[in-house]
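Technical appendix A lists one of the benchmark inputs used to test multi-chain prediction within the project. The record comprises two sequence entries:
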Amino acid sequence: MSNGKTFKLDGKNIAFQDGDTVMDAALRAGEYIPHLCHNPEFTPHGSCRVCVVAVNGRHMSACTLPAAENMEVDNCSEVIMDQRRNLLQMLFVEGNHVCPGCEKSGACQLQAVAYYTRMLSPHYTHFFPRRTMDASHPDIAIDFNRCILCELCVRASREVDNKNIFSITGRGLNSYLVINSASGKLGDSELSASDKAVSVCPVGAILPKHVGYDQPIGERLYDNKPISVVGDVANANNRQDNGND
Amino acid sequence: MKNIESFITGLLTSAGDMPEHLLQHLCAIQQRYSYIPGNAVELLANSLNMPAVQIYGVIDFYTFLHREARGDFDILFSDSITDRMLGSQSLLDSLCKILGVEPGLPRADGRVTVDVTSCTGICDQGPAMLVNGMVVSALNEERITKIAELIETGTPLSDWPQSFFIVEDNIKRSDILLNDKIINGSAIDSLIKNDSDTLLTMIEQSGLRGRGGAGFKTAMKWRFCRDTDADEHYVVCNADEGEPGTFKDRVLLNSFADNVFEGMTLCAGIIGAKKGYLYLRGEYRYLLDALDKTLQKRRDANLLGNNICGQKDFDFDIEIHLGAGAYICGEESALIESLEGKRGIPRKRPPFPVTNGYRQQPTVVNNVETFAAAAKIAVFGADWYRSIGTSESAGTKLLSISGDCARPGIYEYPFGVSIKQVLEDCGAEDVQAAQVAGAAGSTVPPQEFDRNIAFEDVSTGGSFMVFNQQRDLLDMVQNFTHFFCHESCGFCTPCRVGGSLMKNLVDKVIVGHATRNDLKEMENIGLVMQQSSHCGLGVTAPKPVLDTLEKFPDIYTKRLANRGFEPAFDLDAALEESRQITGRDDPEAHIEYEPLLNAAEQDES
């Protein structure tokens, strides 16, 4: 299946197929490359940059980097881990992420990747942006404070749900997620709780209502095993949906 | 509002009703109504069959498009560092004061808005402003007073003194490109007499490299594009000259447009394109009418259109697309996104535009100067071009020179000219630094003035700004970091967030609150941005900080607070909201914050 082609990830041989990115091949081989905006079900995006790896001294995002034979990919050196931690700290100070009070705590990919890269503090000066919550929808709430602009909901709504409910507007640090409805409110949109867009959010921005703290802290996805072992939030949601978790 | 409906229906009929026409329609609506009204968005959403949020996403991305009405006179001061050095900020203050208007907000009667915008490319004749898209150059207090009067009396722009709108070419030194123009059609003749393979080889042997700054070999780009099998091929001329301090394309488009269009036609003949686009930055809208007329003349002369110069099946035409205030659209894949009517977010690469460009078809994107040079090479040959410049950098380069010098303007030099020579020619004295290649370029100190302008040494897309010893280079650094923050598209984390963190730290240095630790922090953020950003903007954005930290450390260290740690915020300012709420403003409601700058200076002495 791999036509015998391989590249090296931290010295380990990884088989790949034509058209694979480094991320595709690593995921298939069960190797973990930290990531947030990537989800193998969707077109790679390359915006969070957390999957940064080094190839011949050049830093690139693994999710958009085509795999090539004999490539030597550095996925876990101190330099790379430092850089990822810096990027995560940037994401933390950009929004308002209050882990202890967040319903997603313990099952949040941002938090889990931060633990994985041994992030101990946000380090940078907080921007404390004024953002809102939208609880107008009967089944789903959205807290813009926690959005990291990964555009997974945008892609899922467009590519899978065929609804185009989410979109990004603004520019630079003023970029933000918006809802496609006459009032701009989620309640006026066609979003439904079973939409793909609802289950792909890697953080606590898009949350189902009526199930607050259903799963006790201590028993959540990343509470006992690191993200490098249990994988993405969206994956876990898929497993739950299929009833085989 | 009925007339908006008919206006939009007219646009859709005359200019097209495909999604890629969106940005052009929005530019037209903005120009006509001074904003994009909500019902216009609805109409467009229905006609172009796209969600309204997507249209708002485009409006919010481009700084020249607005959801709220601007004034009848929409004034934008160019906020490039060279405009500032010529006094633009005090002129803006004067105008706001005379007109009684707050920067950025329309006056209550809707008459006028006064705001700033990134470099408008009039740096050699600044300070400059745009009034409803028209350039007013050489501003001074006298002009400002007159402008205020014209605004108060509601005088239409057509009745303003025409001398206000003069933009000189200002060519101070010319060489093979600017010495003369080719006879219209002569490059196309050369293509027809030889054949496309011969011409491509000629371009290859001339050693021509892209003039936007990156220096990719032109012939190689054209060959990749030609050899990609596809339904359509496109030629795109990048006239989104947004790098602060660059204005050479303004001159080429003003006086050498035929050469540029001829170069595009040549490229089309070689790669097999039927359609070409000139992506003209919104700031150069004032050149649009003349450019359209030139295109029409070329159609009339059978230099564009069907069966060009009588050659069967040589069909090619050029359309002009306007930008709307987004520096990032100078990046070729963002430019293509913008050409398709979308937000100018740079694409993932690979694939590159030569194989997957406009509408995913193979596309050549070249700089204005590159096309002009290619046309000349087709006429005069590879050896003629090759004989000038250096072995790595053939031919000449247009430099846009501004800042502290006696003779700012356009200088055409053979590649390999030393920075020292350039400074001497433009009459720069007592120079502290030359900023070569714009905000994204290098800060060159006097001990490096023997270095040369060439791809293999100091490479530049054309910007060359001079700073004398009296200038505080930190003002330049601040201007550039604010510029990059404003122009970041916001797609990737390091540029979007890192850029803002960097900006805030530079501001912290300026107000005298920074410590050595903050300088280390700036280096660290800069490295993250350089190494992990999605596109060239994020990679180059920290350069002004990193360059000056290395080469001009004094501009930072002399402003450091004499403490190991300083809070990132101003304690007293943080209390402002509480003061507002409690209605207090007595001394007890303030925290005295001694400026630490003096303390630091005393320590040093």
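The first helix of chain B runs from residue 2 to 15. The domain at 472-605 of chain B is CATH 1.20.1440.230 (de novo design (two linked rop proteins)). Comparable benchmark entries are summarised in Table A2.
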